[in-house]
Write a structure and sequence with these properties.
Layout (H helix, E strand, L loop, with lengths): L2 H23 L10 H24 L4 H13 L12 H12 L6 H4 L2 H22 L18 H15 L8 H19 L2 H13 L3
Helix pairs in contact: 1-2, 1-3, 3-4, 4-8, 6-7, 6-8, 7-8
Length: 212
């Protein structure tokens, strides 16, 4: 298959994805003006297409369909008629990170009980951490706060289960690096929930600009 035919087929894939995702985004943007959902979907699809082309040049793998599918599945959880809680961005971020690392997730893996539990825990913990961060005014990374009505007990309990799921040796057939990605994303939420923006900026400055 030559490059021209390949690009034409990819554009057809993008067009199909655009049609599907526009139907999902339009209800979410109903109060934002005429066809805002369609325009945002167009920007998203063009961005994902360009990213997939860049990844193909860098690594030789075609990740366009997995990328579009990951976004479509995430948007589906935000539909009012779906009787499930909308997923946080954490699961989407972990999924996309794995896709760019050529750790593609098959339909079989998506239905795997352990993988489902992995995504459920990641989503729940990161949602709790986001709420925890929103309800408190952090002073530093030691957990000193001015006010909070969210207990950390459930967060810690779920985090322990996630750690056990990721770090234990098992024959579940799930790539350990896929699991590690979900843990890394969760840890990043944990970090931002407990550290103030000032502290985070100081840490970034040390890592990026100071000699160790």
């Amino acid at each position: 298959m030559n490059k021209g035919n390949h690009s034409f087929m990819d554009l057809e894939i993008v067009q199909v994805a655009y049609t599907k995702m526009s139907k999902l985004t339009t209800p979410l943007c109903v109060n934002e003006g005429y066809n805002v959902g369609g325009r945002l979907t167009g920007i998203l699809c063009r961005t994902l297409y360009q990213l997939s082309m860049d990844a193909m040049e860098a690594h030789g793998g075609d990740i366009l369909q997995p990328l579009l599918h990951a976004w479509e599945m995430w948007l589906m959880t935000w539909q009012e008629e779906v009787d499930i809680m909308p997923q946080s961005e954490a699961v989407l971020l972990a999924t996309i990170t794995n896709i760019f690392a050529n750790r593609l997730v098959s339909e079989e893996l998506l239905s795997h009980p352990q993988y489902k539990r992995l995504t459920e825990l990641t989503d729940r913990i990161c949602r709790y951490l986001y709420q925890f961060q929103d309800k408190k005014v952090p002073d530093d990374c030691k957990g000193n706060t001015k006010s909070s009505n969210i207990t950390t007990v459930e967060i810690e309990s779920n985090m322990q289960e996630l750690l056990h799921l990721v770090l234990k040796k098992s024959g579940d057939g799930i790539n350990s690096k896929i699991k590690q990605t979900f843990l890394a994303v969760t840890k990043s939420y944990y970090y931002t929930a407990y550290c103030s923006p000032t502290t985070i900026n100081i840490h970034m400055d040390k890592v990026l600009f100071q000699r160790v």
